[in-house]
User: Fold this.
Amino acid sequence: MSRIPSRVLITGAAGSLGRMLRARFAGSFDLLRLADVAPMAPAGKGEEVVPCDLGDEATVAAICKDIDAIVHLGGQATEAPWSVVHKANILGAIHLWEGALKGGVERVLFASSNHAVGLWRRTDVLNHTAPARPDGRYGLSKAFGEDIAQLYAYKHGIRAFCMRIGSCFPKPADHRMLSTWMSYDDCERLIRTGLGADYIYEIVYGISRNTRAFWDNANAYRLGYDPKDDAETYADEVAGKMIGNPIADAFQGGGFVTPEFVGDPSRIP
Ligand code: NAI
Ligand code: 15L
Assistant:
């Protein structure tokens, strides 16, 4: 059985999605603990604001104490050198799940990314069983996050809700986002679903109910996610806004695929 958590930690609380959720979660829980390495607005009623570098094991363990659920948004959110990705997303994930285990946390909602599967072709319709096919170091770190979530779920019983987020912005910025976009309202809906649903380990896609979705999100719907928006509303605004590179336009990861790409993409099945 599952219960709605009353003490929630958000990592990456200073970031775009963290700030958006903080505003929407105000008053929803007994405690909302907000952690980030970057500055955050002072704590309001029912909030704690805690500086934390995910690369620091002891600090991460401390923020995981007396918490029911973690919404793990913190980390490097785009492609970066190994040193950055390693510290924020690999070591950060290890510290977070170890902290969750030691702190007795019931569930972790993990902001994975479509870049964990970015080297699948746009003609492939993936569902939650699709294996990772990362399009870079960042995407690989998200695949690692999904795997560590699975280990700690199946071996240690920490529920994990891995959200392969597409593009979560106020509105779609280009043609690709007609497939990958998730509205802020739907992001809140997805996270509230992950906080309340009964599961042990799940992968879902973080998208709105997009007409042109790359992904079959039946698993998220099964768990109770009911998105209300569709990027199609913005189709006229982004018409013709292609990336304009044949490799980027062929693969789901779009512009993350091309940097450092070498040779003939036909080698990718
Ligand atoms: P963001 O870059 O605005 O926020 C990430 C936050 O993590 C920042 O406030 C940053 O200071 C913090 N952070 C970075 N390194 C850290 C460290 N070593 N220790 C502690 N905090 C650290 O990114 P955004 O857009 O808010 O995304 C949130 C999460 O969702 C990220 O994990 C990102 O990878 C994921 N995601 C976001 C998508 C989007 O469209 N916004 C799409 C796919 C995944
Ligand atoms: C991501 O993983 C990034 O965090 C975000 O900035 C977007 O670029 C998004 O993917 C995307 O693929 O549109």
